[in-house]
Write a structure and sequence with these properties.
Helix 4 runs antiparallel to helix 5 and helix 18 packs across helix 25. This protein is α/β, with parallel strands linked by helices and 686 residues long. A ten-stranded mixed β-sheet has the order 7-6-15-14-13-8-12-11-9-10. A five-stranded antiparallel β-sheet has the order 1-2-3-5-4.
């Protein structure tokens, strides 16, 4: 809730009630804030009359009132230790003087000796001191710090809090710096001291510079870490949508969803994203990357190329069936890099031919002349340090400088983007960064700009102790979020299998333009690349590719044939030798005598298993669940499905992924027992 500054609050307090009229009413209303000290003085004088009547002859009352006076003064001094020194001293003196006069008046009488004069001079004087103090608290030129001097303590004296906003677990203060004395950089340098003064973590205090004024900043304080609990992936944000829609990858500390944009947007003036992902071992970098990649694979107009020559299928494994080209060794990775270099000019020529300045979702649709569209391409290089080390530290620079206008996003993921790992030109070309916990502040400088670090970003405070914590600095994300901690979603293996299976029918295939350029550049390393089977199957999926045969799109594969003729010739030579051996056999020669008889078992009467396609198997699962529901069963387990699906050649992992799909669709609900699910009936779902 937004709050007014102290000056506005004071004016609101003094403003006469609506509908009020008359000078007397106005004056009374204006006097209200100053009346409490006067009322307290009048009350003390009146209370002395009955006190004297009851206690003037009592020695015990005299002792009690004296002790009470001392106790009240001491309590006031003790209670004021959290306030400023001025307020503490003023309050203690007021209580001491008032209680001393009251004790004397109660024993001797309020009209005894100098007590009346002391009352009529001292009570108004004390009341006026509080009125003066209250008046001086007003500062029409701007309010002072609302925390009683904390800004002065950290070296930001004369800084004024002009306004503030308070929300659950978040407070934002607009600061006006003294012109010519302090700068925005001074506030950035004071952030560690501010965090210490407020007793919060270093990441909890951030500053946003005002681009229009060097003397104004916005200070944000988040006292409690709301990201400490892992957040499971809620499912696809735009299932079957376009890659131009935001890709949801996690949440910020205030609950806002963290998103990234891969293609550019000419209307918003946003360029395509070229992303550097960095984080030390154990920081959750790879898990966050797979969350983003799984979200990408739920879109209809994007093709993914992915490389991991270091861990092979350890990280990419669950998503391999949905990836158009997976390079899991260095040879294939080098080929993928060469393919990108060749595909970029081909894709830009196609875009220019059809009047596109950059890739937009319409590019993936069939064009006006009947030509097939061109999906967006995401080239993802996991564990890229090995690739750079075995090729060139500048290997991605040229690609990063050229792919932006070709409908391609380059993603480079590595643990440490230091100068001896990757060139500064490459880092400069990768305009976006997704940074997880790093070892020290120097490592943070490799991926985050100085202004983001000055604003309070500190991934080195997490190291590997808080997996999933990250900063996202990317195109399309407001600068106010660049230094705001986020946490990437946690995705289970079953969810990744579900994504691969569920969106297989809508997922884009490679386009002829990219495929032909790639095939000409690297030959069979692309056209004969490995295609991985869908989860739960053992048969490889058919290679339905725009470059399967050169004749389909006028591609001449002669160069590729020449490149691989040696290996083919070896196979043909082996076959010829075998044929020569066959020519030496005499067909009229008598067969050798029988020395052993093999007893063949009887053919099983059991019918052979029918191998269903993925869509047919999913339909079978639906029918099985319907049967369970018809039997009035409430609880099911994956093993219950396996009893029926085993005859269709489906593995347990595939069945588990289908169970996960039923949970997402609302057909099943989790119970308190692991591996046990409750059937959600139609009337219950409604």
């Amino acid at each position: 809730m937004s709050q007014s500054n102290p000056e506005q609050m004071y004016e609101d307090q003094l403003r006469a009630a609506q509908g009020g009229s008359g000078v007397v009413e106005y004056l009374l209303h204006r006097a209200k804030p100053h009346l409490p000290p006067w009322l307290a003085g009048i009350g003390t004088g009146l209370a002395s009359l009955p006190a004297h009547y009851y206690w003037h002859n009592s020695a015990a009352a005299t002792a009690g009132l004296t002790l009470a006076s001392v106790a009240l003064t001491g309590t006031t001094w003790w209670a004021g230790k959290s306030t400023t020194a001025q307020r503490r001293l003023h309050s203690a003196i007021t209580v001491a003087v008032s209680s001393t006069w009251f004790t004397a008046a109660a024993i001797a009488g309020p009209d005894a000796g100098p007590l009346p004069s002391l009352y009529f001079m001292g009570a108004p004087a004390l009341a006026l001191t509080w009125n003066i103090r209250q008046i001086l608290r007003r500062n029409p030129e701007g309010s002072t710090s609302a925390d009683g001097g904390i800004l002065e303590k950290v070296g930001l004296a004369k800084t004024q809090v002009t306004s503030f906003t308070v929300a659950p677990n978040k407070a934002t203060f607009d600061l006006q710096l003294p012109r010519g004395e302090l700068t925005q950089d001074d506030v950035s340098k004071a952030l560690p001291l501010l965090a210490s003064a407020m007793d919060v973590s270093k990441n909890a205090v951030r500053v946003t510079h005002d681009p229009d004024s060097a003397s104004r900043v916005q200070l944000t304080v988040v006292p409690h870490d709301l990201l400490k609990n892992t957040v499971p992936c809620p499912g696809p944000s735009h299932p079957g949508g376009s890659i131009a829609d935001p890709v949801h990858v996690g949440i910020y500390e205030d609950g806002t969803e963290a998103v990234m944009y891969f293609p550019g947007d000419p209307d918003a003036g946003r360029n395509a994203m070229l992303l550097l992902i960095m984080g030390m071992t154990g920081s959750g970098k790879s898990e966050g990357g797979m969350t983003a990649l799984a979200e990408v694979l739920t879109r209809r107009d994007v093709v993914v190329w992915a490389s991991d020559p270091s861990k092979a299928d350890q990280t990419l494994g669950p998503l391999l069936p949905a990836i158009d080209w997976a390079a899991l060794d260095m040879t294939s990775t080098k080929a993928m890099i060469e393919a990108l270099k060749a595909a970029v000019p081909a894709r830009t020529r196609w875009l220019a031919k059809y009047g596109y300045k950059q890739w937009v979702p319409a590019c993936a649709e069939t064009q006006a002349d009947g030509s097939p569209g061109m999906p967006y391409l995401v080239a993802w290089f996991e564990e890229a340090a090995k690739t750079i080390r075995e090729t060139d530290d500048d290997v991605f620079t040229g690609i990063a400088q050229e792919v932006r206008s070709a409908g391609v996003s380059l993603v480079v993921s590595m643990q440490r983007a230091s100068g001896n790992q990757v060139s500064t030109d490459t880092r400069a070309s990768l305009g976006s960064s997704w940074v997880y916990g790093v070892r020290n502040d120097r490592d943070a400088q490799f991926a985050l700009d100085d202004d983001v670090l000055d604003a309070g970003a500190a991934p080195h405070t997490w190291k590997d102790k808080k997996p999933g914590y990250c900063y996202l600095v990317a195109n399309g994300i407001p600068e106010t979020f660049w230094a705001t901690p986020a946490r990437s979603y946690l995705t289970a293996r079953e969810y990744l299998d579900w994504v691969v299976l569920t969106f297989a029918d809508i997922r884009a295939q490679g386009d002829p333009v990219t495929a032909n350029a790639t095939a000409k550049a690297v030959g069979r390393l692309y056209t004969k690349r490995t295609r991985y089977p869908m989860p739960g199957t053992t048969q490889p999926q058919p290679l339905e590719d725009a470059a399967m045969t050169g004749q389909q799109h006028g591609y001449d594969d002669q160069e590729d044939h020449d490149r691989y003729d040696d290996s083919d010739q070896d196979e043909r030579d082996t076959d010829d030798e075998y044929d020569d051996d066959q020519d030496d056999i005499d067909p009229e020669q008598e067969l050798p005598p029988v020395t052993r008889v093999l007893q063949l078992t009887e053919r099983s009467a059991e019918k052979p298993k029918v191998q269903l396609s993925p869509s047919q198997a999913r339909q079978a699962m639906e029918e099985i669940l319907d049967e369970f529901e018809a039997e009035d069963r409430d609880i099911v387990r994956p093993a219950d499905f396996m009893e029926h699906c085993d005859r269709h050649g489906r593995s347990r992992s595939w069945v588990s992924s289908q169970v996960a799909a039923f949970i997402v669709a609302g057909r099943l609900a989790e119970t308190g027992e692991t591996g046990v699910y409750r059937i959600v009936r139609d009337d219950e779902a409604a």
